[in-house]
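task queued by scheduler; priority normal; single chain, no ligands, no partner chains; default sampling; output format set to structure tokens
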Amino acid sequence: MSGEASGPVVEADREAVRRCQAGEADAFRVVVERYANVLYGTAVLMLGDRSEAEDALQEAFLSGWAGISGFDPDRPLRPWLVRILVNHILQRRRRRFLRVIPLPEAPLPIASPETGPELAAEQAWQRREVAVALAALPADAARIVVLRYFSELSLREVAEALEVPVGTVKSRLHRALEKLRTELERGTGAELLRSHDSSAPQDGEAEA
């Protein structure tokens, strides 16, 4: 993640943005194909409903296309798209007063092709446990955990997506992880959050 400031993906994004700003709709299709999966996964985890997530994703991309003329091509594209998506998700949550996020009908795909069926089942169950725990968190806390660990944004990118200082992200993330640990400990997944912290297994504050 930290290498995104200057790399082939960023250069390709800049080129796509410039083409979009020149009115080439096909260039935005490239952007959609590049970021649809990570944005969709984020939407599913925040909304808990695949149909709602698809609608939010479509709205986000439409807003992105409408606003890309004013976007600075030298800025990272993904945090900007994530911020648009998060805004649409929050609007949906406020409209429908979603207090509890229902579980997805099926777990999100597990990326590793080497994952065996037993481990895959365990990972799927852990994802469901996390979804339940996230559902019990305040919206702000759930959002920052999803952006940091599931969308895999760096702290700087989370700050850009939420338009807050990096220091604010760190303090909010610390509080959110403590709340998430509390919710997991109410169920059967108390060790899940600890195992996610490879640098300090006994410290719930770590950013993994």
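post-processing summary
- The mean pLDDT is 75.
- The two ends are 13 Å apart (CA to CA).
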